[in-house]
Amino acid sequence: MSTRNNVQNTHISEQLRVLHGALLDIVAVMNRPQRDEGLIREAGIALDRALFPLLVGIERFGPIGVVEMADRVGRDYTTVSRQVAKLESLGLVARQSSAADRRVREAVITPKGKAMTDLVDAARERIGRAIFESWDISDVDELVRLMRKFADAVKEEPPAGK
What we know:
Layout: H1 2-31, H2 33-43, H3 52-61, E1 64-65, H4 66-73, H5 77-89, E2 93-97, E3 105-109, H6 111-131, H7 137-155
Antiparallel strand pairs: 1-3, 2-3
Helix pairs in contact: 2-6, 4-5
């Protein structure tokens, strides 16, 4: 039994290294400024690239506080606060008091902002369809199922001492 566990552990270790490498590749691509610029261009919208991930994040996760948004995008909260203020001045987001804590101001998407993210979603779908054009539908379904399962698991606190 010990030999089988060693083989399984070695296999899992090797697979974790490959998985980590794949995730690093995906994150590197997703973090490229050119990627956001291409999506903005494909969507046919006029928006500063630095504001783009915030607008999408507010639409997806809002209402959301500046500190939580800053954590999600890996930026300083003071920078995010200024950028959210810019989105607000453009009429793309609004700020409101949090229902849970009145001291916290949360950003929410406006109808104008939602119209813009709808264009981004349509562009993302066109790009995604091109990427998956040669894939079997069952492979796409399996990828989506497993990515969601992995994302849900990774959001949990890691087990201590393991």
